[in-house]
Specification:
Blueprint lengths: L5 E7 L15 E6 L2 H14 L6 E7 L18
Antiparallel strand pairs: 1-2, 1-3
């Protein structure tokens, strides 16, 4: 069975028209979720809490898309 992991994170952007974080050490890691629905609910909750700050953005990263078991390992995996 394939896992469909999703990471929800966010922070304040330098400019609302970009995706460059003002301070990467202050990124809010909300969590890793087992399905899109639960990730979306966490994202929505965080986004609604910060609606008054136009520079604050939250994102959903599809972690399952970063790793494909059928393809050969990337060079960074071979370091470990």
């Amino acid at each position: 069975m394939t896992q469909r992991l999703h990471l929800v994170f966010g922070g304040e952007l330098e400019d609302p028209q970009t995706t460059i974080f003002r301070d990467v050490t202050a990124i809010d890691l909300v969590g890793i979720f087992p399905d899109y629905e639960s990730a979306y609910n966490a994202w929505k909750s965080k986004a609604q809490m910060t609606v008054d700050n136009a520079h604050m953005r939250y994102f959903i990263a599809h972690l399952h898309r970063l790793r494909d078991e059928e393809t050969a390992a990337g060079s960074t995996e071979e370091l470990g």
